[in-house]
Amino acid sequence: MPSVTRKPQANREERRQQIERRLLEATDRLMSDGSSFTELSVDRLATEAGISRASFYIYFEDKGHLLRRLATQVFADLTEAAQKWWSVADRHDYADAHAGIDGIIAAYRAHQPVLVALNEMAPYDVGARETYRELLDGVADGVTTVIRGGQAAGTIRSELPAATTATALTWMVERSCQQNLPHNPRTYDAELADVLTEIIWGALYLKAAPTR
C-alpha cells in the first residue's frame, strides 16, 4: 500500500507560505500605523506575526529577503485581481476591464505599505529593484496576451506593438497607484479606476467606451 505521508519539502513550502502571509499582514498593520519598513526590527515583525525570531530566520535571510518575498505575495493578489479582466478578455466588455482595474487598485490599497517600502528600497537595493521589475514584467506579460488576443479578434488596434504597449500601460497603472493612493482617501479609488479604465480602453480598443 503506498504511503500517504506528505513529502517534507511540501510541508516546508506550505509552512513557508503560511508564515509569509502572516508576515505580510503584520507588515501591513505595522506600517499602516506609521512605522517605516527600515524602522521595523525582525523581533517586532515576528512578534506581530505570532512567530518566533528563530522561525523567521529559518525561512528568511534578512528583512530584505522578507520584503522581496512579501512583494511576490502582493503581486499574486494584484494578478488575481487583474484576472477579472484577463480571464474574460475575449468578451471585449468595458465592464470587465473596469473590474480588473478596480480590483488592482483595491489590492494596491490593501498592501500599500509593502509596495511603498519596496519602492523606497529599490533605488539602493539591487535585489528589491530586480524583484520589482520582474514582478511588473509578469503583469505586462498578462496584458500583452490580452492585446494580442484582441488584435487577432479584430477588436484591438492592430498597429500597436503589443509588448511595448502592455509595458507602458502596466507602468502607468503602477505609477498612478504608487504616487496617488498614499495621499488620498479611499473615496478617491473609484475615480482613479474610472480614469485608468477610460485611458486603457481608449488606447486599445476600436470600439468606443460606453457613455457613463
TrEMBL record:
UniProt keywords, alphabetically: DNA-binding, Transcription, Transcription regulation
InterPro entries registered for this protein in UniProt: DNA-bd_HTH_TetR-type_CS (IPR023772), EthR_C (IPR049397), Homeodomain-like_sf (IPR009057), HTH-type_TetR-like_transc_reg (IPR050109), HTH_TetR (IPR001647), Tet_transcr_reg_TetR-rel_C_sf (IPR036271)
GO MF entries: DNA-binding transcription factor activity; transcription cis-regulatory region binding
Superkingdom of source: Bacteria
UniProt xrefs under PROSITE patterns: HTH_TETR_1, HTH_TETR_2
Family matches, as Pfam families: EthR_C, TetR_N
Gene3D superfamilies: Homeodomain-like (1.10.10.60), Tetracycline Repressor, domain 2 (1.10.357.10)
Protein name in the entry: TetR family transcriptional regulator
Organism: Mycolicibacterium confluentis
